[in-house]
Fold this sequence. Notes:
- The complex is a heterodimer of chains A (about 300) and B (about 270).
- By secondary structure, chain A is of the alpha/beta class.
- Chain A has ten helices and 14 strands.
- Chain B is mainly α.
- Chain B has eleven helices and two strands, in the order ααββααααααααα.
- Chain B has helices at about 5-25, 30-55, 70-85, 95, 100-105, 115-140, 145-175, 180-195, 210-215, 215-230, 240-265; strands at about 60, 65.
- Chain B has a two-stranded antiparallel ribbon with strand order 1-2.
- Classes of the chains: A alpha/beta (about 300), B mainly alpha (about 270).
Amino acid sequence: MIDIRHLSHTYKLRGIKAIALHDISLKIKKGEVFGLLGTNGAGKSTLIKILTTLLYPTAGEVFINDVDIKKRPQDIRSRLGVVFGQQMIYTGLTGRDNLRFFGDIYDVQNLEEKIDNLAKFFELEQLDYLVEGYSSGLKMKLAIMRGLINDPDILFLDEPTLGLDPNMQQKIRKKIKELQKMGKTIILTTHYMLEAEDLCDRIGILNKGSVVAIDTPLALRKKMPGKNLLEVKFKNPQVFDKFRKDYILTNDPTLIMIPITDSDHLNSVLKELLESGCYIEDIKLIEPSLDKVFSYFTE
Amino acid sequence: MTLQHIKNKIKTIQAYVVKDIKLTFRFRMSLVNKFFAPILTMLSFMVTYSAIFFGAGTEDLGFVDSSNYVVYLLTGFLAYSVFRLAWGITSLRGEVSSLTLYGMLMAPGSRVYILAGKAVRALAEIFISAGGFAAMIIFLNPAIDAKNLIIGLGAIILLFIIFISLDFMVTAIDLVNPGIAGVITSYVPKGFLLIGCVYFPVDVIPEIFRPLVYINPLYHAVNLFRSGFMAADLQFGVMMPMIYLLVLALIMPILSLYIFDLVFKKWNIRGL
């Protein structure tokens, strides 16, 4: 569905070149929720602008539904939807007027019916009120509705839950999941790792304009050698004195964390613990969070 | 091009126009401001002219004298309002900051449609301003020659087309280089105004600069418009300035749309 080949982009600011994207190649499948993660300035927005035909890349190729978007952007625009946070809507118009305008310029048929269906789907009852009176959550809903007005195959969501309260974040995520079930391909950027883990089938991590990792959230965790931790809680604080040199102490005097590199290492540590004769109250293996995975790949 | 294509194009342009008109009337106070701001500026000129005629005892300044200076200034300001309101009205800065421009640029239609809504919006604002001034002028000078008035209004409409076209060009430049566009927007209107003889007779301009005055469409439009209300003595008659304005009004929109499109293509503006 989306095939990116050796994509690069360089900005020129006052004669100084700044590389925004460097030799990116990746494929995004139809119906997939693909997460784009990266630090600020990593190149996420530049990549989205190129994929949505808003920016012409310096080098490389992008094919969407087999259409070369560099050569034939007009052929693909009507199949794309983009949402940049709570923006891209007129606060001086009502929600309905916003949708009417964007629907008309996309030549959407049966527009009023479409607007009502979207309002029902997003449970937006304030459609005839001025947007300037909307809460952040309502603006976000309207922004996504605007992105969906032309019934796109591919929806780009840039920070769709930024600045929203946890309840509204949940509601938006639920709608994103429902959109995926409806067959939409969704490219999502977010700084919330839990959100990425919850929503994304695969995640691509961008760092300094390059893709440094790309895989499912689970597989990305496993790509972190030595980042699994064995948490061991003892009944008696004195018994693990011998581990002090090698293992991580915590604030709890009965608790230690042991970094595990692989399964052989795990077995040897467990054997050592049992042979030490200490009484283990609790033990568990902790996988690194996506936050840690993100830091690992971007620092 | 089929009938359906034409219908679609009209529908798209209509969408831009309706959106911009709604946004214009959403902020009504700014419309009131567009009428009162020129009046406040005009008052300073009225005070100056009053001082010249009634304080200093000067009987006339060529065509302008103590009996007609109020209408003279009002006609000048009406024409100036049309010219001034056309400046910056098609700016896409607001659309850039709210990112709504992205939504428009991603739509399949021509990017030049974006300007249609802006032009109609400008026209709506100008009607409000012009209506107010016209009412004041008619109140002060009810005996108006209808034929001259039509010619004058025609000149004003042509002036609007010329300057809104110039504004389209500035809008295109603004997307590429806001700094240069800012300088143009700040100083070029003042230049046109200075050599437009809106507030003072052409006689006060030194001879060497007169050719600049005569190529300024603002000068001719203001004079033609004044002739409708004040039976002013037109230096070049009616025909020549009207033809000049008409030619400019035909060339400028085509040129501006060409430049707008050229800028988008040359600087490869797909988004920003």
